[in-house]
Amino acid sequence: MTDNTPRTTPRSPQVFTPALTPFNADLTVNSTAFIHFCRWLVSQGAGLAVFGTNSEANSLGLEEKITLLEQLVDAGIPANRVIPGTGLCALPETISLTRAAVALGCAGTLTLPPFYFKPASDDGLFAYYANIIESVGSDRLKLYLYHIPQFTGVPISCDLIARLIKSYPRTVVGIKDSSGNWENTERMLREFPGFEVYPASEALLEKALPLGAAGCISATANVQPQLIDRALKAWGTPEFDAMQAQLKAVRNIFQSQPMIPALKHVVAKAFGDKEWEHVRPPLTPANPSWADGMMAQLRDIGFDMGVKGMEGMQR
User: Fold this and answer.
1) What parts of the chain have a pLDDT lower than 50?
2) Does residue 65 lie in a domain region?
3) Which of 53, 94, 171, 220 is catalytic?
4) pTM given for the model
């Protein structure tokens, strides 16, 4: 399925949220709360990178993910605002989830490399991605690579990106760079013009947008989606700097704590629903020893999720 036609023009910069996954007390997925939360995120201007790292994606089963995707679309969430994480260690499962996303009309897939067998060569990783693309066999597939080597132990090199773009220019269209290494993000932006590069933090927007970044895919978009969306639209205006300062202040507070429990704690408080505190092991819920101080810090900088009228979401 090698396709040598030019790639599509990148979309306008936007924010995608690796949406948190709510669990019941028995640790089953609460799909109703998930749909309500995703609907709120979209209403705030965010797209949905469901089944990302901060979604506890690798604590979810394949069938759970497919079912949640189907339920999102059935509930009226626009599929063209959804880029689900589909990368799994088992190639057949990655293909199955990717096929489901394409069939539902999702905007793309965010695909981790297989992360068990290490080290992985560029040849092996190319074969992994090529197998996904060839097996799905659809020109509607838009595949975004997911580079997070501190978790996977499997980096996605610029040489591999160049090789994938050359072979599948209309399919391999972008990457999320969660490496935390600005030099790496900058290199991708400079070497691959037109390739959709998404930094994993809104704190990098002031450096990344001038180089053509596609926006960001950020954990803290779970709690400040509207401000990130507004900042992207305000880039190049005097208002951007003040927004960027606030975005950084919030991001810094969350980065100082275990990210997923911290985000769920704040969402639980904002929506008045303590069930949001649940995480699947090996994660543990927010602990008052640090959570109370975090909430005080957020109050001190005037943080507000802006969910008034949304409290008590149906569960």
Assistant:
1) 1-10, 309-315
2) yes
3) 53
4) 0.93
